[in-house]
């Protein structure tokens, strides 16, 4: 129905982000975040229409966090009980081999998400806390899991299989699962709609703090850069992306680092942050302008990896029709778009310098009419994509 709403929840280890969405119109009705859960001074923000309420208070755990969220909906609006919430969508990072679409969270699905915790140790335990907490405040509506891995569940076997001893890979379920799938699916769908055809070979570059690339033919991905976990692939804000796995042996043997320390180093202290001290591209461009050579090299490393993936996917696709930028960097960083496309000029890629300068809150084609490939910027909207998927499940 027209006024049905979906509450979308993204629960991390120390935060809960939420949005109340209308899945049919795409309207964002309210949103907010509870951060630094478990610390003495948790930061809380709730936005409804023009009202933005922020506060700092101690929030012990996710249960208390969701109780605060419920209070804010009552106090600032709109009341959850009166908002016609027909479903709650939970973003889940690791769906393992089990899920290729959204799933109603019953006992069985809950147990599978739990079983997958070893494959998503940084995320799945936090998602379960989010589910428990949200079920407390909305016990009567269906809760649905939307998996970051689902879109890549049917990758070709040759793309998802690592050349690792088969028995070991099978025992520990080691394969490429991918991540950011909801975004790649949503953006590639928008591109088909903008260009008015399904018959496309696409590369989607989701460049945010986390970053991933995917190669898609018609409706199906044929490869993606994130792997068993979101660590593999492109250079990211704080993650290494591709690195020789033997580095782990070396740091363990020679550096006497523990596995947890190496995990922290690769997942949080590396990437652009490890190279420059900053994970935000805006800071890195400022350093480059000020003549900082390390920042300049970090940008070259970032672009070099990006170009390598685009070239590899172009070959896998056997040609390219559309190249699309999305997420924080993809939507807002004309420098990254310009430099990458300049390196692809030898393949006939050409973008319009002026159009490219925009910070995109809208979908746009930024290639020139004579470009060999359409180049687009499509703002991702993972919450809307989740809300739509949840609606498709609960509407039945
Ligand atoms: P997340 O992976 O956390 O969802 P986002 O997609 O929101 O990340 O992207 C956040 C990143 O986007 C920032 O760390 C920053 O590098 C980049 N970014 C945001 N705005 C700009 C901008 N105006 N110019 C360049 N980069 C930007």
From TrEMBL:
Its cofactor is Mg(2+); Mn(2+). Pathway: Metabolic intermediate biosynthesis; acetyl-CoA biosynthesis; acetyl-CoA from acetate: step 1/2. It is an enzyme of class 2 (transferase). The keyword Protein transport does not apply. InterPro entries: Ac/propionate_kinase, Aliphatic_acid_kin_short-chain, Aliphatic_acid_kinase_CS, ATPase_NBD. It is found in: Cytoplasm. Its EC number is 2.7.2.1. It comes from the Bacteria. It holds the Pfam family Acetate_kinase. It catalyses: acetate + ATP = acetyl phosphate + ADP. ATP binds at residues 17, 206-210, 280-282, 328-332. One of its GO terms (molecular function) is kinase activity. The record marks 180, 239 as: Transition state stabilizer. Substrate binds at residue 91. Homodimer. Belongs to the acetokinase family. Catalyzes the formation of acetyl phosphate from acetate and ATP. Can also catalyze the reverse reaction. This is Acetate kinase. The gene is ackA.
């Amino acid at each position: 129905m027209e006024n049905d709403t979906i509450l979308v929840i993204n629960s991390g280890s120390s935060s809960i982000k939420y949005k109340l969405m209308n899945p049919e119109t795409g309207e964002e009705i309210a949103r907010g975040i509870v951060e630094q859960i478990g610390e003495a001074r948790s930061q809380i923000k709730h936005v409804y229409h023009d009202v933005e309420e922020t506060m700092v208070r101690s929030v012990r755990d996710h249960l208390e966090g969701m109780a605060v969220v419920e209070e804010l909906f009552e106090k600032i609006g709109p009341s959850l009980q009166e908002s016609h919430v027909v479903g709650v969508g939970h973003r889940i990072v690791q769906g393992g081999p089990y899920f290729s679409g959204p799933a109603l969270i019953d006992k069985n699905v809950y147990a599978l998400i739990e079983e997958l915790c070893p494959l998503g140790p940084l995320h799945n335990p936090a998602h379960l806390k989010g589910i428990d907490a949200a079920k407390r405040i909305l016990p009567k509506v269906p809760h649905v899991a939307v998996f970051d891995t689902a879109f890549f569940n049917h990758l070709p076997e040759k793309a998802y299989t690592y050349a690792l001893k088969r028995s070991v890979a099978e025992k520990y379920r080691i394969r490429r699962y991918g991540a950011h799938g909801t975004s790649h699916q949503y953006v590639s769908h928008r591109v088909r709609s903008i260009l008015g055809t399904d018959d496309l070979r696409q590369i989607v570059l989701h460049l945010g703090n986390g970053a991933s690339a995917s190669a898609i033919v018609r409706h199906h991905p044929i490869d993606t850069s994130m792997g068993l976990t979101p660590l593999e692939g492109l250079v990211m804000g704080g993650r290494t992306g591709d690195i020789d796995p033997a580095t782990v042996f070396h740091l363990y043997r020679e550096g006497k680092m523990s596995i947890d320390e190496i995990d922290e180093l690769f997942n949080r202290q590396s990437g652009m942050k490890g190279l420059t001290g900053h994970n935000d591209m805006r800071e890195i461009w400022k350093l480059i302008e000020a003549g900082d050579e390390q920042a300049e090299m970090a940008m070259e490393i970032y672009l070099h990896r990006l170009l390598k993936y685009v070239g590899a996917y172009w070959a896998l696709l056997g040609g390219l029709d559309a190249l699309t930028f999305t997420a924080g960097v993809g939507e807002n960083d004309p420098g990254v778009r310009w430099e990458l496309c300049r390196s692809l000029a030898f393949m006939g890629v050409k973008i319009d310098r002026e159009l490219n300068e925009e910070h995109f809150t809208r979908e746009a084609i930024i290639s020139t009419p004579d470009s060999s490939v359409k180049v687009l910027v499509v703002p991702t909207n993972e919450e809307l994509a989740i809300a739509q998927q949840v609606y498709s499940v609960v509407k039945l």
